[in-house]
Amino acid sequence: MSFPHHSSHDSDNDCCNCCEMIEERLKYAENSYTRKSNRKMNRLPRYYILPAFILKSNTGFIDSHCHLDFLFNRMKFVGTYADYRIKHKATFPNNYRGCIAVFCKPSTFSKVPIWQKHLDQENVWGAFGCHPHHATAYNDCIEESLKIALTYPKVRALGEIGLDYSSRNKCPKEIQHRVLRRQLKIAFETRFRVVIHCRDANKDCIDILRELLPKDYVFHLHCFTDSWYWAQKWLKTFPNVFIGITNLVTYNSAKLTHEVAKKIPLNHLLLETDAPYFVPRKISKRIRWSHPGMAIHVAAQIASLRNITVEEVLYWTHKNTIIMYEL
Asked: 274 labelled as ligand-binding?
């Protein structure tokens, strides 16, 4: 099993480094498993995508985190999101209801046409924030552009913001801390929900959030790939946190994600694709990029792991997304 290769792109290369690193680690693990086929391992429960794909759900699902600007850039797609959905209609399930488009590259904040064309689409809502990979670019001018972007009617959160101590992020920790604090202060002052990116930095991230936000603050801990131990720490420290699971859960080697997906209380779970990254394992290798409709794979795999129905997963995650993003 191999992961799709993500080539560099001027507009989002820095932002995707941590995603690519995670994929490379899992790719190595998947290949190691293939080479050692006689090795006994607990196999990931199989999920069946067709029943989930055609399910006529009462609630459906909303992809709680995607990057439409990156997706369009990588596919060199010209047009609206409605055009994209029409062109790729066969790959969107019946129960798809919308998405949260996240804009995390600071230079994009002031380029209104880039993001407005997405947010003007039906059932697309937005979030803006400086990704920790871009913390060195954050300044007073960027902050002013961020504040202006946050006033757009369909913007629902500030993010993704946070800390990233992975080897691919060369931004010094002290700068990341300063930029995170500045943005959290904006969120608190404006009462915006936040989307947190935390990679290999759980303790520091928790400490800074405890310092600047009330214990009952509502936020989305995005693309969680750490252990159940740390998931419990987050849940205990912030009882209103929602934890996002991506299509990494569909891969045999993502053991930590499987445990979290099985144990997390359903009223704290969100489905996300982080599109264009993390193509589901069952998707053809010809498909290089994921899109918001593919969050149904996350739901189907979690249902299989927990031995519950896909409908139950969709019910809770849709409800949680509505609460988190005040839709």
From this structure: yes
